[in-house]
Design brief:
With 613 residues, the protein is α+β, with helices and mostly antiparallel strands. It is 52% helix and 19% strand. It contains 16 helices and 17 strands. The strands form four sheets. It has a five-stranded mixed beta sheet, sandwiched between helices. Strands 7-6-10-9-8 form a five-stranded antiparallel beta sheet, sandwiched between helices. A five-stranded mixed beta sheet has the order 12-14-15-17-16. Strand 8 and strand 9 form a beta hairpin. The longest helix has 85 residues.
Amino acid sequence: MKSMLHKGARYSLLLLKELAAARTWLLCYVLLILLPASFLLYFYYERSSVILEKEVTRSMLQTMKQTGINLTYQFERVRDTSNSIFMNPNLYKYLDQSEATAPIGQQLVVLKDLRYMMDTAETNGNVFRVRLFVDKSRIYAGELINFFPMDSLKSRPWYNSVIEAGGSIVWVGAYQENYIDRGSAYVLSTARMIRNAQKFDQMTGVLVIDMTEQTVRTILDAVDLSKQQVIYMVDSAGVAVSHADQSLLGKPVLSADLRKSIIEMDEGIIKIAEGDDAKYAVFTTIQSTGWKLVAEVPAAEISRQAVTLNRFSSVATLLGVSIMFLLLVFVLLAFIIRGMNRRVQLVIRTIHKEGLESLDDRNAASDGHINVLERSVDHLIDKVRNLMEETYKTKVLEREAQLRALQAQINPHFLYNTLDTINWIAIGRNAHDISQMIDALAKYFRLSLNKGRDNVSVEDELNLAKVYLEIQQSRFPESFEFTVESDPAIHKHYMPKLTLQPIVENALLHGIRKSKAKSGHIRIAAHQDGEELVLSVSDDGAGMEEEIARKLLSEPRPESSFDSAGSSYGLYNVNERIRLYSGEGYGLSIRSAPEQGTTVTVRLQIIREEQVS
């Protein structure tokens, strides 16, 4: 009981000392941190409103630019449809002047072909109607759905602009058009003149492609800048091309000063001073048409957003600074003053449990915690056994990680070689062999990836080697043959994946391809020897010196490596992987001599099907 009271008094005294230290820290914090930070925050609040207002409007401009890009894409789809019809040679053939005097039956055939052309163009989701204005003498000029007499177009205010454009596209702003089959609708149009292919100075028709104003309006309605926004699109004269208020379509909606400012710039932000009703005009240019996309937002709405952001950032900053330094004060007190003492006491209690129960609190108080620790260090040696056990587990994990790393390094350049081969086949052979190459490559990926598993069946590993060689036969036609000989009884056994492919690659690229004849034969064999799996890859190619062959398996990058690109590194990796899987007694062996070919033999432990999880 007295011991507990003694401990309580000692902790209480320590707490009072900590509070005294905390008072000093808190006073320093208030004088040196809190008051200066408050002044800085006030200055920041006053000066940042303008900056934040600019940031808000700049953010709105970015939104408008993105909307403009979207609209440009929609208009370009209509433009592409116009270009597709305009470049169709049949159109000029059908509109040739000599066709006007053709028999009615022939003109009906022309009408059928032209209608098919129009219907195909109208499958574009942005195209509302394709209209072709032709000479009234043609029998189909009075069809009034896709075909119209030229005279009906001459009263349009934009007719002269189309003629002056000489065949270039003229974008026509929103106007109301009546369709026999679809009723009345506000549309935007592309119009262009069609010349006689034989007599270029003569006009044979006008091609008009319509899209509904509602298509544009749907995109503009999705823009969310503020609750009181007004978004519209105008042409170079300031006339509304698209507007939420349809009564304003086709009418000027910009003041002279605002129109001049907007027309002179591709994009920008203009503040319109109108007393208490001041507002911002945020605008950008639609590149495909030259029209301007304009958003009018009340200045009060932007100021409100800026003030909200300003207030939030100021409060957040003040709270963050306060909390950070308060935490700093108490963390320093708690962890520097008390934390050290607690850790020392924890270590002592642990040592007591291991056999130092004879050391009581009085000895600790008189001698001090450090002296007790110094006398008790030798008892901690018993803990080394636990550390050794943990070290062993760590080594096992490190071994597995090393295995996966080695596996991941094998032949990454094969993918690029194959893709390069496909590319040159496509260019050089007019794409006749691409289908076969892609099919073989897909098989290679399926077998090599193996759904992320590390082990594959012997049958799949042999198939992977076959697919690789088939791909290389497309790359090096008639340069080599290969055979695969295996015992079907071992096909269901398992082995580390991507074991044979690097060996087969070396046999081809550094055996066959580097021989004097540049051709040869590769033989792959697999059989079971007791509880071991034996695979071999032989070629009758260039071969190598015995010393080079030895270094291929003993050094990652031997000085005398026959492959400056690093293919010998693949053999070293395969050998290391097998030793990690099966042990030191397994791996690769190489038998070779110059101009007598090379044989690489793989020996590894059999992994049976039931051993694979």
